[in-house]
């Protein structure tokens, strides 16, 4: 009998990886936005059609790529961001797995246009289901524009699994908002079809929160600031009036990466004890800066979960810092002695 095990062709391996990295249009948008930020962009434009099912386009004015790098960027495990395993413990960029573009190109039709400032001409590359269809020099502005068309065109099961446009659009907007909050210094816009949803100038965090959430937030934000040897906290928490029954307006960033942490969410909520009803969720946009060697963000492909060395200490610092911020701003409720 002959041996029967074979290595999978790249296109299939990429498609399998895509199942983890690209669940829906919003996950593709997240990866493209992170790449634009990593490329040092100061201006990022997003254009969406059919809730991302037809088009997700991200245009940045970042450092661009050479023609060879443009081609390489679609190979799996191809990255300019880490070189050695030690680098995994000192990650300063959003990306590092080198999987996103390979995964996206495995399940969509992708057009990349990219040019470095120093180059006369840029490169236009078409790739479809991991297959390069065309690559040509082209006159282009500095930076990178990536258009992801017909997501899951070759994976009908996935395509059918996508939710309504309203639901997918909500996820896209959430993803956009997270990056916009994490980077108020970057000018950003979001268009859906021909409609402008956001046009955000470079600004302070406070101005960015107001631009995204609404004018009523302007007078409702309390600054939070704390520096401990291990951890720096900054950002804003909402006055108790901003607390809502529904979750969703809680933004926690660790080293500028949006993360979900029920544990630290709990730390924030305990700081509000006695200020809001226990079934309400406070508004917050908080940034934790921690030495990358104390965290592990490599636990999940979408990198929204991380592990901390010392969760309990962080919990304590967060709670104390917020308690202090809230206490300094709030008048103790007066008690009526109606005797
Ligand atoms: P990762 O971000 O994990 O490195 P990606 O697949 O997202 O992996 O990207 C692969 C590589 O392509 C990146 O390391 C980077 O060098 C390059 N790249 C991707 N997007 C951009 C962009 N918008 N501008 C410049 N370079 C980019
Ligand atoms: Mg990336």
Automatic annotation (TrEMBL):
Q: Which GO terms describe its molecular function?
A: ATP binding; ATP hydrolysis activity; ATP-dependent DNA damage sensor activity; mismatched DNA binding
Metal-binding is among the record's keywords: no
UniProtKB keywords:
DNA damage, DNA repair
* Stretches assigned to the DNA mismatch repair protein S5 domain: 209-327
GO cellular component terms given for this protein: mismatch repair complex
Give the GO terms filed under biological process for this record: mismatch repair
Q: What does this protein do?
A: This protein is involved in the repair of mismatches in DNA. It is required for dam-dependent methyl-directed DNA mismatch repair. May act as a 'molecular matchmaker', a protein that promotes the formation of a stable complex between two or more DNA-binding proteins in an ATP-dependent manner without itself being part of a final effector complex.
Instruction: Please state which protein family the record places this protein in.
Output: Belongs to the DNA mismatch repair MutL/HexB family.
Name the chain's protein: DNA mismatch repair protein MutL
Organism of this sequence: Nitritalea halalkaliphila LW7
